[in-house]
Each structure stands twice: as structure tokens, then as C-alpha cells.
Amino acid sequence: MMPATPPSSSSLPALLGGEPAVPAGAHRRWPTLTAADHEAVRGVLERGVLSGPFAPEALELQEAFAEFVGVRHCLLTHSGTSALHMALAAAGVEPGDEVIVPAFTFIATALAVLHHGAIPVFADIDAQTFTLDPASAEQAISERTRALMPVHIHGVPADMDALNRLAASHNLVLIEDACQAHGATWRGKMAGSLGLAAGFSLQASKNLPAGEGGLFVTDDDELAHRANRLRNFGEDAKPSDFAYDPARPLDATRAYDAVALGYMYRGQETVAALARSRLERLAADTAHAQRLAERLAAGFAELPGMELQRVPDGASSCWHKVRVVLDAEAAGVAEQLAGHAGASPGATQSADATLRDLVMRALHAEGVEAVQWQTKPVPAQGLFQNREGYGRGYPWSLATPEALARYAENYQPRRYPRTQQLLERSFCLFSHSHPLIAQDEHVVDAYIGALKKVSQHLPTLLEQTKPAGLSPV
Known about the structure:
By secondary structure, the protein is of the alpha/beta class. The protein has helices at 35-47, 56-69, 80-90, 107-114, 134-139, 160-169, 221-231, 269-279, 282-300, 328-331, 334-342, 351-365, 382-386, 401-410, 417-425, 441-456, 458-465, and strands spanning 73-77, 98-102, 119-123, 145-148, 173-177, 185-186, 189-190, 197-201, 214-218, 306-308, 315-316, 322-326, 370-371, 426-429. 38% of the residues lie in helices and 11% in strands. It has a 7-stranded mixed β-sheet with strand order 1-9-8-5-4-2-3, sandwiched between helices. It has a 4-stranded antiparallel β-sheet with strand order 10-12-14-13. The protein has a 3-stranded antiparallel β-sheet with strand order 7-6-11, with no helix packed on it.
């Protein structure tokens, strides 16, 4: 009888002595800057006009992005967070009002609410799309609720049909956090055109990267006027107040009369020029990311216990991030994990989290970029556990004792089991520096190969690496 042929090093996971699936240096770094991008920024420097709410590049970008989204108004801001704050303030949200946001998002979603003295109230997410669950949001509504702020997380649109119905039935405004969703669509309409207003980010990791910056968009004339006042020191500034003389680009004729509380939320000309250059190829970049995601999804069909974030029917994702969810039962290792858990009475984390950490460790050995991104539900962060705010508990101190007790309960992480389970069971493929949108088919195929190796050898990886720290099940 012939002896069994040992597996080749290319078929073994790198963590068990095999060859890494992803060659060193295979990734492309983001953002990729072209000669056109350099020329756009150089043009600003040569013109010598570097700032101003109605400066040439800002106006061009605003017009182009409004057309891209399909709305009448766009305002350049200095961040996605300030764009969201402008949207809430312009929509009439007031200090002490409540705004419902998802428990799974980036902290900036909730910070934009706090920046206006309003109070974030959290709701859980849909288990498959990871976006705000309309049923959970409805349960969070109180007499103080003024707005809903769903997040198109990772570039996947929230259920805007259901959320718009919910907002209408309770007389709430709906603001989209579209900071990760440039080019995503819902029922044929662009993200950012699906609510009263929206905020986008131009931060360097985003699919429309320009360093640091943001874009406020709306189809409402009066809302745009109020938002523009807020971003410009509370002044009712007009383009004629900023008539640029190339010889005197810093001089303007405005009256310096603040008619309302405002901020300095304006953007910069170099950022606007770079964003406008990038916008010209955003559609092509988005289509490229979508093709790669389809290729990746085809590979996942052969990976039991590993699933990608679901994109709802009638929607499209721009695939800002690629999140993978693990299922120990479907992967055939649930009993093995339970056995480890039983042997670890002093464990500090769940079996799901331990499996996640092992898979990430194995993928890192393959040369795969794999990150957690968020590590806890937003309400579990210290800001909401301590509720010190601006000092003396503001803005929570505006609330009644009954409302304060409700907030204390709302900020308990256990209230968000789907968010908690997602964080324990999932991770993101690729990274900020090396996102999907920057890669080619060869890198995606190498990732699929790495995932297959890890999936096929998962029981052996669990046995030979002896994961520690499991919580009893």
C-alpha cells in the first residue's frame, strides 16, 4: 500500500507551515493619486485662492456632487461629522431632543448629535445588512424623539423605504449618514438623496478621498440656506459677498453680521480640487469595487461558515468595507470550540470571539489584511457610560429624571444583541490603507485562496494552535 502523499506547502495554511497565499507587496495603497489629481491641486496653488465658502473649486465641487447625488444643493464642509451636524441643526433639531442612531457605527454619527446639544438614543441593527433595524428604531421612539439618522454602513444602504415610513408616521426628520456610501444606491436613487439631508466624508480612507473634508447635501432650499449659515459663523453670506479679486484673494465685502449661532465648518480649496478630480472617476472606481466584490462573493459560496454582508434586493453597495461573518456551527467546529470552552473556566471572551481571533491570525499569516474596525457597540464606549458630555452632564442634564433613567438603560450594551454578536463573530477583509477598491483581481483571487485554506483546515488550526481565553458556553 502506497503511503499517503503529504499535503503540499501551498495547500497548508501558513500558520501550519504552508506558503502564504498573498505575495508580499501585492496590495495597492489607497488613495491612488493620478497626474490629474496632482494637476488639480497644483492649479489651486497657482491661482492662490486657498479658502472661502464661495471659492472657485468649492463651487465647482458642490455643483458636480449635487448633480452626482441627484439633489439641488451641496455644501463643502471640513469633515463628514460637521456635515451631519449641519444637517441636524438645519432640520430643526434642538438641545434636549433625541435622535435615534444605530448601535453599530463609527462614533462620529453619535457625536454629530451631541455637538448640537441633542441626545443620541440607540437602536439595534439588522442581522444581515448591519444597518439600522426599523423595528428596533420604532421601539426607541419617545415623546422627545425628533430625528432618525440611519447609517449606510460599509457602503450598504439602510432600509430607506421602511425608515421613511417610520419617520413619516411619527413626524420625524430623516438624516442619512452616508459618510461611507459614495455611489451606493437604493431603488435606483443615490445614497444622500433618500432623506431630508445627508452627510458624506472626504476623509482619505473613503471611496471619494481628499484628505479631510465633508459634503452636506439636500434637495430643500431653506434647509440649504440654514446649513450654509451654520457653516459660516452664523452669517447669511452670499456669493456676492466673496467676489474674488485675484490680486486680493483674502478680501471680501461681507458685513460680519452673525444672525445665528454658527461654526467655522467651511472646507479648503485644495481638498475641493482633489475631490472634484476624484469625482470624475468615482463611477468607474465604484464599478471596479463592485466587480471585485462579485468575484469575492463567488469564492465565498465555497466557504461553509463564512458569509459576507448582505446587500438588500434593489440596492447596490459601493463596498467601502468588506465584512465577513463567521458561523461556528456551519463551519463544523462548534463542538470543538465548546470543548475548549469547557476546559477554560476562567475564560475572558466568548467562543465566537476566539474563533474570530483565530481566523484573523491565520489570515494575517497568509498575507491577508484583516481588521476588526469597531470593537464594541457605540453605547458601550466611555462617553456614553460616563455621560459627562460638555461638563455637568450636558446635554443629558437637560432631561427629566425619568428620561435619565431611560438613557442609562438605553446605553447598556446587552440591549443590542445583534450588534454584539456581529462584533464577536465578524471582521473586515482589507484595511484603510489597502481597501478592496484599490486592488486588482489577482489580489482578490489570492484572498479567496487564503480563505479556502483557512476554512478547510479550521479544525486542525483549532487543535494545533490551542486557542485560550474562551468563555464557558
